[in-house]
Amino acid sequence: MYPQLLIGLLVLGGARGLRQTRALLEDDLYQEDSNLEVSQVPTSRKIPKGGQNSDAETDCPIEFDRKCTCTWENSRLYPNLHETRNLVVNCSNAGITNASFLEFLPTKTAKLIFTGNNVPVLEPNLFGKRDYPYLAYIDLSNNHIKEIKGKAFHHVSTVTVLRLNDNEISNESIHDHIRVFSNFFNLRALFLNDAFNDEIWSLSDLGGIFEESNLTRLEKLHLESNEIGIIRDPKLFCDLISLRELYLRNNHLPDLNIDVDCLPNLSYIDLANNYIRKIPPHYALFGLLNRVNSKGEDLRLDLSKNPFHCDCELQPFIDWVRNTTYHSPDRIHHREKLLCESGLPESNTGLLIEKLLHEVFSPYCKLQFMGSSTLPLTSRKSKQKLPTFDMQAPI
Ligand SMILES: *[C@@H]1O[C@H](CO)[C@@H](O)[C@H](O)[C@H]1NC(C)=O
Ligand SMILES: *[C@@H]1O[C@H](CO)[C@@H](O)[C@H](O)[C@H]1NC(C)=O
Ligand SMILES: *[C@@H]1O[C@H](CO)[C@@H](O)[C@H](O)[C@H]1NC(C)=O
Ligand SMILES: *[C@@H]1O[C@H](CO)[C@@H](O)[C@H](O)[C@H]1NC(C)=O
Ligand SMILES: *[C@@H]1O[C@H](CO)[C@@H](O)[C@H](O)[C@H]1NC(C)=O
Ligand SMILES: *[C@@H]1O[C@H](CO)[C@@H](O)[C@H](O)[C@H]1NC(C)=O
Fold this sequence. Notes:
Blueprint: H1 2-12, H2 17-24, H3 27-31, E1 37-39, E2 69-74, E3 76-77, E4 85-90, E5 109-113, E6 121-122, E7 137-139, E8 147-148, E9 161-163, H4 171-176, E10 189-191, H5 207-211, E11 220-222, E12 245-247, E13 268-270, H6 284-289, E14 300-302, E15 308-310, H7 315-323, E16 332-333, E17 340-343, H8 358-361, H9 377-382
Parallel strand pairs: 4-5, 5-7, 6-8, 7-9, 9-10, 10-11, 11-12, 12-13, 13-14, 14-16, 15-17
Antiparallel strand pairs: 1-3, 2-4
The protein binds 2-acetamido-2-deoxy-beta-D-glucopyranose (6 copies).
Pfam families: LRR_4
Signal peptide: 1-17
Keywords: Leucine-rich repeat, Repeat, Signal
């Protein structure tokens, strides 16, 4: 319960926001399902039935044909903080191939778990045409979703968490239904981990959906594991003006060229396990390292598990890493996991970046690179053949 408590408070914002943001970044919480429950209340109270014409066995509407369960949970769910009982509709792993019965979703539903089914297309008005004043949380992960029709989501203005992880949403779907998230005015966390089919290698393909979608309250955006290798438009996230945490772990990014001036509250970027080999001073990423947001918070980055090539060129970054050791909170999340995957001298391979010494490089460095933005060719020539990476990102 404790992690949910923290996450809930984060969303409540205010003076406590800062501390909660940091707690959120701990590994165990990062894994945690952020369902924004803030507290539990005693279970002794009699729990009402699902309403409408309920099936006696599942408490769900009879139209659900026993595919789901409908249970009242004693909890508080953001933003319905005055409610202590929330209706949870759970349709997990039920072999569902046609989701049209969701038009009979009980109007009091607060949390919908619809995962592990096989629904390639989300049709218009997925939840029918009624209002859902308590709907706060929707999980549609792992359903082989390829296309989300433009008007699939209506009456979702109260939803704060939407999960679409592990689907196969196509490039065409994104282009044809650019306003797909336009009714989620209150969304705080959007999970799109491995949500797209393999053709979406450029984050720019997603640009329109943020621009057209009124996600002005979104604080957490998860885009992990999408094979993203390139960002063409640095202003891609600028419409997400409340963004605090951006998760781009497990992609193919060699650098991160995004405009953060338009994101005053951004405080954390997860870039772990991408294709970052070097961070010379002219890289956008180098600029990001010293960013402070409008609240005076340092931007924190997770750069662990990237294939750093530890040679002269990495020296400015290495200096930066070592210079910031005593900064609190640490601007580098998982500092202890910043390792050299290769290096010159080769003996740097496998070493911890912050432990590398200037002297190690000196025989290999023809010039002092501190502050310089280009590498002399002589130094390039002297290097052995560099390992190659499949960037998968055609120009
Ligand atoms: C939903 O139901 C599935 C299968 O019955 C169960 O494993 C899962 O824990 C349930 N999830 C929630 C959030 O209740
Ligand atoms: C899904 O079920 C509804 C109602 O039974 C039906 O009208 C619709 O054609 C079905 N859709 C598909 C793709 O089979
Ligand atoms: C995605 O779709 C757009 C527009 O239809 C197209 O220009 C682009 O090339 C597509 N990208 C890929 C990788 O197919
Ligand atoms: C949603 O965004 C569109 C275009 O960005 C804008 O025209 C519209 O006024 C916005 N609606 C709300 C309710 O913010
Ligand atoms: C940034 O955070 C502060 C404090 O949490 C909040 O008051 C403010 O509205 C946020 N700004 C934006 C643009 O979301
Ligand atoms: C690291 O600190 C040293 C000494 O304060 C300074 O000269 C150097 O510019 C700093 N380097 C970076 C990359 O911040």
